[in-house]
Amino acid sequence: MFGKAVALFAFLLTSPLWAQVTLPITPPTLPTVGLPGLSGTCDCPVVPNLNALVCVLDWVSHAKILNHTKSLINGMIVNEYTLQHITILDGAVNLPTVLIIPEGPCGLELQVGLQYLLSGLLTGNSQLYTTLCLQVLNTVANDVMTLITPLWSLVPPGLANEINIIALLQDVVCLLLGDVLPILEGLITIPPEIGGLFPTVPLPTIPVPLPGR
Q: How far apart are CA 76 and CA 194, in angstroms?
């Protein structure tokens, strides 16, 4: 009997009952900020600094808008832009040239013929995706009026070089972010309607009546 008691005590020491109790774990989160958008307020996660944003993004580019159409993707109305990459600050050399931006408060106001500092993610359809939340100027600019129109002329001096340096040292820079990076990666995502492979359906245009008709 004594031997069985010792064996039981040894078992409890090596496999305590409390080890079998699963406590609820609350995943860490980041605060959000409401940015004034095109048609309301866009809720974006607060990005700690430029390093963190560049680590989460797939691309950053000084680009010119060549064309703009509206399309329908899995029931979601999006703005579809064709870009000319003037300088790719971060991302693959052969970045796609089609940019998808959903309609709504988190959209951007871009005009054909103008140059912008744009940044965002890559879709499963090898297209570019972005929103108000993914813009570099959200992190470095203090004037919220510039956020929906990230014109290249508004880019602070030295910012392009800073992004280049972060991109070159990305492995080290991102490692130093610790637990912040996976949290941001979980918050900054592409909607499922757009994230995978999808057919793009151009929306019909409404003819503008000529004066006097």
A: 8
CA 133 from chain center: how many Å?
6
Q: State the pTM of this model.
A: 0.74
Q: Go through the domains of the chain in sequence order and give each one's CATH number.
A: 32-190 (2.40.50.120)
pLDDT tens string for the chain (213 positions)? Answer: 444 443 433 443 344 443 344 434 444 555 676 776 667 788 888 888 889 889 999 999 999 999 999 988 888 889 999 999 999 999 988 999 999 999 888 889 899 999 999 999 998 778 999 999 899 987 765 544 446 788 999 888 899 999 999 988 988 888 888 887 888 788 788 888 776 544 444 544 444 444 555
Give the 3-state secondary structure of residue 166. helix
| 71 torsion bin: left (phi>0), alpha (psi -120 to 50), beta (else) | beta
The CA distance from 125 to 44, in Å, is: 24
Distance CA 177, CA 103 (A): 32
